[in-house]
Amino acid sequence: MNKPTCTSQAASTTGVELVPYHCKHDAILHTFYLPEEQRQFTGMPDEMLGLAKQDPHRHPVVITAAGRPVGFFILYDGDELADYTNASEALLLRAFSIHYADQGQGYAKHGLLQLPQYISKHFPNVREVVLGVNARNRPAQKLYLKCGFQDEGDTKMGSHGLQHILKMSLYR
Q1: What is the Cα–Cα distance from 103 to 107, expressed in whole angstroms?
Q2: Per residue in 44-90, pLDDT tens?
């Protein structure tokens, strides 16, 4: 049983929560900015929401702090999941980002720490979360590993180079 290894000393990082996307988040999500060196590794909320509205396998999630959107990602359960895992009860975490103005506040860490509980509530049959992180994106790799993802040595070629496939077991 793999539990997240980073602890939440201040789980009250100003009320950080994971919530399902709602159109009330649009005004802020559409203003999200990332510099090019970060944008090359992720999808922006605008683009990802457009895809999600046309694909029932894409489930947008918003990271909020005191009710204000500060981050965004997609949980995906479609065909491309097979490129990352053989597990049938799995989700793929995609397009994880924290608005540039809100970076450095611990929002990414606190959001990832809440991922097992969020999935348990909204996707009760899921037992594993997987993601692909670009080999050149060292800060993201460190964060994911610190927060409970495991690197079992699996890789795949992505659109921007080699990706490490990381997994988090959610066995309860």
Answers
A1: 7
A2: 999 999 999 999 999 999 999 999 999 999 999 999 999 999 988 99
